[in-house]
Design brief:
- This protein is mainly alpha-helical and 78 residues long.
- The protein contains three helices and no strands.
- The chain is elongated and about 65 Å long.
- The two termini are 37 Å apart.
- The mean pLDDT is 84.
């Protein structure tokens, strides 16, 4: 159960998107209160994107077994 060494810095970039999603959600909330009815959908959408980014950050942090393909049938290339 080893982690790929260069995976950690790439995974941390996902966390930068969460404050962006929160800020965009607040911006759309302000626009929705101002009378833009389409913005109400974005008020719900941006926090969902932030939750998805957190889920991907968590998912990439989980250790995984290396894939063993020794039991797979051999394929011939024509």
């Amino acid at each position: 159960m080893s982690k790929v060494p260069d995976q950690e810095p790439k995974r941390k970039w996902l966390l930068l998107g969460i404050p962006v999603c929160i800020a965009m959600g607040l911006l759309q909330f302000d626009r929705a209160l101002g009378g833009n009815s389409r913005s109400w959908m974005y008020v719900l959408e941006w926090p969902f994107f932030g939750l998805f980014l957190f889920y991907m950050y968590w998912k990439l942090a989980q250790p995984h077994e290396p894939y063993d393909d020794s039991h797979d049938p051999k394929r011939e290339v024509d």
